[in-house]
Amino acid sequence: MIIPWQQIAPDTLDNLIESFVLREGTDYGAQERSLAQKVADVKRQLKQGDAVLVWSELHETVNIMPRTQFKG
Question: Mind telling me which Pfam families this protein's record contains (predicted)?
Answer without folding.
Answer: UPF0270 (PF06794)
